[in-house]
């Protein structure tokens, strides 16, 4: 069963649509699935006014868990019980699922064994943490959080589809996002200093 079929089955199923039920369905793939879902919203090229910071904080916690070597997602019971509302589920169904299906159609599982080592989980956590922190500190209303968020989504899809090439593309996109946020953020700070 493909990732998109599993996600669609979960979205249409009768079980409660909570973060905890999503973790239970995807088990060891939960980290990557949660990164895709949490960072899909900031990856959209629309200003979110800082609303996505909550998602980014959760993603940072998950990345730290990967760095610590955890195999299974741990979240506080309150967060696990958090329901993914109908509007968000609709956005995932209509916006995210078709894109995942397209990527699945073009992705090929290559060298998936590289992703099964403990050290690859630590590297994945470190890279994800850097990209999520970059998205978090990007100036609000600028859309600069989009590029590092797209990087996390692509890397996570590479992990889920066992495609290191897709993960590598995500890494390059994310690194470009870090560079852009740094350069434009610095230019904005210099421009503000020049006003005073």
Which key terms come to mind for this protein?
196 residues, single chain, mainly alpha, 69% helix
Q: Biggest sheet, in brief?
A: none
DSSP helix fraction: 55-70%
Give the termini separation: 59 Å
Give average pLDDT, whole number. Answer: 84
Q: Gyration radius, to the nearest Å?
A: 17 Å
Low-pLDDT runs of 5+ residues are none
Query: How much of the sequence is in beta strands?
Result: under 5%
* Silhouette: globular
Count the helices. How many?
9
Topology:
Blueprint: H1 3-12, H2 19-26, H3 30-40, H4 53-67, H5 77-80, H6 86-106, H7 118-137, H8 146-160, H9 164-195
Helix pairs in contact: 1-6, 2-3, 3-4, 3-8, 4-7, 7-8, 7-9, 8-9
3D structure, described in words:
- The chain is mainly α and 196 residues long.
- It has one domain.
- Helices cover 69% and strands 0% of the residues.
- It has nine helices and no strands.
- Helix 3 packs antiparallel against helix 4.
- The radius of gyration is 17 Å and the shape is globular.
- The termini are far apart.
